[in-house]
Amino acid sequence: MAVLEELGGLKYVRLASGRRICYKEQGVRREEAKRQLMVLHGLGSSRLASMPGVSDTLLKAYGVKIVAIDRPGYGRSDCDTEQTFKSSVQDIEEVADALSMGDKFWLLGYSCGGAFCWACARYIPHRLAGVCLWAPAGNYYWKGISDEERSAMWKDLVSSNKFIFGLGRRTPSWILRLYTQHFVRPGSNWFKRLEHTLSAPDRQHLLIYGPDGSLIRNLFTALLTDEAAGIMELSDGGVIPVG
After folding, report:
1. How far is it, in rounded angstroms, from Cα 8 to Cα 25?
2. Could you tell me if 158 and 165 are in contact, meaning their C-beta atoms sit under 8 angstroms apart?
3. Which stretches make up the AB hydrolase-1 domain (predicted)?
4. Domain ranges across the chain
5. Does the pLDDT of residue 223 top 80, yes or no?
6. pTM here?
7. Least C-beta-crowded within 10 Å: which of 40, 65, 151, 235?
8. E strand or H helix at 135, and its extent?
9. Fold for domain 3-184+223-241?
10. 149-154: average pLDDT
11. How far apart are CA 186 and CA 180, in angstroms?
């Protein structure tokens, strides 16, 4: 049975397996909530991002309580070296139950977090009030995608993303772990590379919330764990982060 813990000002759910999931709460109190939403972050992100851009005023107006977690291997959450989509769903359900999110709760996942929302929709649809996939990561090699569709999607990817997807598909997992542990480093250079892929309004936003703001803190937090997931391994089942 999962239990709640607090250490050094951080909140955790200790799962039945013994692993800990760190979480952040935002919005109204649980007792006042009309809707409870769990947020699953993307690659290179953490619980600190929560639902990017949302204000406490808006959450209170709609009676929403947000629970944003560090997915396993990110931030302050323990790594799960045997993680699968199904086991990740079990973690999410344990966290929801430990935090009394009700018989049904809402899910929001962006980037790689979207893949785990899909997993919840597959394995525990009876527990979900609704699911939102926000620019979700996907599997470009899924057999349900035609060659024409794949080519159309592939040409819109920036070269760095093409490299990551190709690397994840063809490289043994131990090399991926070595790469993430020794070559993935947060910092201002990450933002310089990111800037080339953004629209003009997004570039302006980055100037306001750039390397000295919340984005860099979020990125550093994501990589706190020694075996932080820093790249994606692609399988026939979808996108699986390497822990």
Report:
1. 16
2. no
3. 37-154
4. 3-184+223-241
5. no
6. 0.79
7. 151
8. strand 128-136
9. Rossmann fold (3.40.50)
10. 88
11. 11
